[in-house]
Amino acid sequence: MENDNEDVKQDNLLNQELSEDKKSNSEENYMSLGMCLGMCLGMSVGQLLFDNIAMGLSIGMCLGLAIGMSIKKK
Q1: Cα–Cα distance for residue pair 67/28, rounded to 1 Å
Q2: The domain containing residue 25 runs over which residues?
Q3: Counted domains in the chain
Q4: How many angstroms separate the CA atoms of 4 and 10, rounded?
Q5: pLDDT 10s per residue in the chain (74 long)?
Q6: If phi over 0 gives left and psi between -120 and 50 gives alpha, with beta otherwise, what is residue 73?
């Protein structure tokens, strides 16, 4: 019985710590949206300009990541 109560208390403490970490570490930005749009646009531009989808995809993803992280959600 005592071990069960201690386990429940430890689980509650861990859940509280995890929820506090999520609140403090969460940044509201458009990183994922920027990466998706960058990959889509990069594929098309890479195929048209470089005749290489992979190069356009990687460049577009990097640019989308940088732009998405710089724009904060309101």
Answers
A1: 14
A2: 2-70
A3: 1
A4: 10
A5: 556 677 777 777 777 766 665 555 556 889 999 999 999 999 999 999 999 999 999 999 999 999 999 998 87
A6: beta
